[in-house]
Amino acid sequence: MSRPGHGTFESELGFAKNGAQWHLVVREARYEQAEPENLVFDVTMSVRNLLECSRDVRIDALRLFPLLAQEMRDEAASALKAIQDAKKFVK
Fold first, then answer.
1. Rounded to whole angstroms, how far apart are CA atoms 82 and 29?
2. Among candidates 61, 42, 41, which has minimal Cα distance to 51?
């Protein structure tokens, strides 16, 4: 069980859908310490479109974008494999 005050706040880069459009966003989130070396997501504090963030935040996001792009490629490959495996199972 987490104890109040033993968490951390993080800024995270990602994609989120707002209405019919997807945007690069920065999420401010709080993580609570569940075990000595294990943080667990607690709550989203805010979500802002990257274009509305400060210049410093946008520059920091540029540094993270290659990692985000790689994670998206990995997720897409995993989803494609799952679809292909399901098609083999149905045939």
1. 30
2. 61
Q: Return the bridge partners of 31, or none.
A: 8, 41
If phi over 0 gives left and psi between -120 and 50 gives alpha, with beta otherwise, what is residue 2?
beta
pLDDT in tens, 29-59: 888 887 767 778 787 888 999 999 999 999 9
Residue 30, pLDDT score = 86
pTM, two decimals, is 0.66
> Shortest CA distance to 12 belongs to which of 39, 44, 35, 42?
44
Nearest of 53, 73, 41 to residue 13 by alpha carbon = 53
The pair of structure tokens assigned to 36 is 């000595």
Residues in the chain: 91
